Amino acid sequence: MTSHHRNNPQLLKEYKIICRWHVQRLQRMMDKMARIDEGGSSLLDNSLMLFGAGMSQGNTHSGVNIPILLAGKAGGDMKTGRHIQTAVNTQHSNFLLSVLQKMGVEKERFGKSTGSVNLD
Prior knowledge:
Elements: H1 9-35, E1 49-52, E2 68-71, H2 92-102
Antiparallel strand pairs: 1-2
């Protein structure tokens, strides 16, 4: 989620309220998915959800250090509870390509990707 808040304190306050609402809805959905049994594992365990933005700073349209949350275990292919730090200046599309590949999509490129990111 990004915003053109212009570093205005009132707009930042309102932006935080909106962000909190979105994250609360995400948590609610993940909780519901975790309770749905799919034969010994949950719907959340069998899914991979991506939550984030296309840029890290809306005012400058910065693509550096974009915060992204991945939730779910992708049917056992993803380890949870980790922080994955990519190299400086890694293309956002490299990360998105890696997510596609993790989900079984056989692609060599995505957007402006120059490779993939290790999600293991």
